[in-house]
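User: Watch each token:
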Amino acid sequence: NEFTGVLTGKKLGWGGSHMRTEATGYGAVYFMHEMLQKAGKGGLEGKTVVISGSGNVALHAAEKCMAMGATVVSLSDSGGTIHDPAGLDEEKLAWIKDLKDVKRGRIKDVSGQFSGVDFLEGKGPWAIPCDLAFPCATQNEVGAAEAKALVDGGCVAVAEGANMPCTPEAVEVLRAAGVLFGPAKAANAGGVATSGLEMSQNALRLQWDAEDVDLRLLTIMKSIHAQCVKYGEREDGTVDYVRGANLAAFVKVADAMVDQGLM
């Protein structure tokens, strides 16, 4: 008997890929950048960003936002949200990574370590004024009320880092207000895409360096964005990313079924 399969997310010494840990968070930020560029709103440079969560996706989304010139003012966990009006810096982010990844501590501890950081007990970050929002914590964390708070706070774009963190009602509020909305099936596809890159490296018996994988991830996220635009662009040039992502996914599956003679 023989079983041939593949496992992704492996350690580097066992055929894993560089950047797999960072990929979902980085990819969401790349998708956000493409949405902003398409809408003529520049990039992330100078934008104020709120992020929920403090796990793998949230921390790496924060890292990439900071690298691209944005000011990240929040992270959260189930106990509440930290708000840092001055913005996180490399020292604070490194301390939070150690807190969450090594010590398994609570996000509230950040406010005791760094002056000027407030802890909002039992609250999410959605009422904090911002330009961009990345819900990266859990499913259904953003409802209609939270979406309205984002709109009222000046948010112009949302990219889902978690799996379906916005309820259907929240999505409708955001779309009705003209907020750019990157749905999870597109915006957080970077993780799965990099698992695909890991499989490709295994098949080739190669291991690409981090810079190479990151560039391939960026290219993939640009391609996903382009597919969303292809199927979601309206006559006035704006893009319905929900419609675009849904249609792009449907067409890909339908084309595969036709190719295989199933329809």
About this structure: The longest helix spans residues 210-232. The mean pLDDT is 96. DSSP finds ten helices and eight strands in the chain.
